[in-house]
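Dear Dr. L.,

I hope this message finds you well. Following up on our conversation about the binding site, I have prepared a predicted three-dimensional model of the protein together with magnesium ion. For your records, I am including the exact sequence and ligand specification that went into the calculation, followed by the structure tokens. Please feel free to forward this to your student if that is useful.
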Amino acid sequence: MAYRITLLPGDGIGPEILAVTVDVLKVIAPPFDLEFVFQEALIGGAAIDATGEPLPAETLEKCRNSDAVLLAAIGGYKWDNLPRHQRPETGLLGLRAGLGLFANLRPATILPQLIDASTLKKEVVEGVDIMVVRELTGGIYFGQPKGIFETETGEKRGVNTMAYTESEIDRIAKVAFEIAQKRSGKLCSVDKANVLDVSQLWRDQVIKMSANYPDVELSHLYVDNAAMQLVRAPKQFDTIVTGNLFGDILSDAAAMLTGSIGMLPSASLGESNPGVFEPVHGSAPDIAGQDKANPLAQVLSAAMMLRYAFDQPEAASKIEDAVQEALNQGYRTGDIMSEGMKLVGCRAMGDVLLKILA
Ligand code: IPM
Ligand code: MG
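The resulting structure of the complex is given below.
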């Protein structure tokens, strides 16, 4: 089976971690009778430098015409002060909207090998296995009106709008219930229904949807309490579903339970368009080009691609097992380094994986 994959290396450490991942995919293909056809496209700062825009039309077109998109990371100091429509982040949001990727899956699983890398106590994080399902194309990120306007007195007023329609809530709730069903059957919906009308509608719709999933145990938390519970007793959570902004914040918190954000993959999925698979971490401009980056979140994102986009769970597991094995053998990049382990760079970590997979 042949799959077309669009590669978006982006900025900072992006090209380094994506190069390692492509090598891993090339090795995994033959034993599973898979064929990958890669094409590259520009996004983020790299695209701004080359074309003046963070998401050139050609990039979106290439992504649409592929079976999946592997994105590395975008952004850097260089582009931080450009007008908003020219920022790397705007390119990423345009990609999500352009491909209709309303469901963002962010697993936070602690690996036993890295338990000491977490800033939380071992007994708190041991066994943590959470899936954050974040709505990705609505809410305050996209609601209208938005902008900085001048009032009658000449004072400036910044405005964003948090809005969700019933159908937007229904489709993300459906994804979350189905994921919860396949996991431990527990779903926690996070909102701010004690204050926000948009959250009240969210909660009402999620409750309505729950009638279709009698086997899933649904609970609700306000977002402030959810943030507290995530660091207090994270093992109470299995699947979490929430809106765009709350999901952005809670997924970073959940990521830190696992010790390193450098280990976490994500999948962004829509109804029919190709999904985008990318690490949760950013472009780490401070270590870019130095061969220090941890490529494992990107590699694990490719595993998610195999599982969710290509329905190749065995190939996905093979990659995930290889990552575990590399850690078992004591190899660590700087971000997950601890005493007695073998410090390696990005490329060398990739070579360890290739050797394990060979
Ligand atoms: C994320 C990031 C993005 C977001 C930024 C880079 C636009 O923080 O993917 O979590 O806010 O969604
Ligand atoms: Mg974020």
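In brief: The first strand starts at residue 2 and ends at 10.

With kind regards,
A. P.
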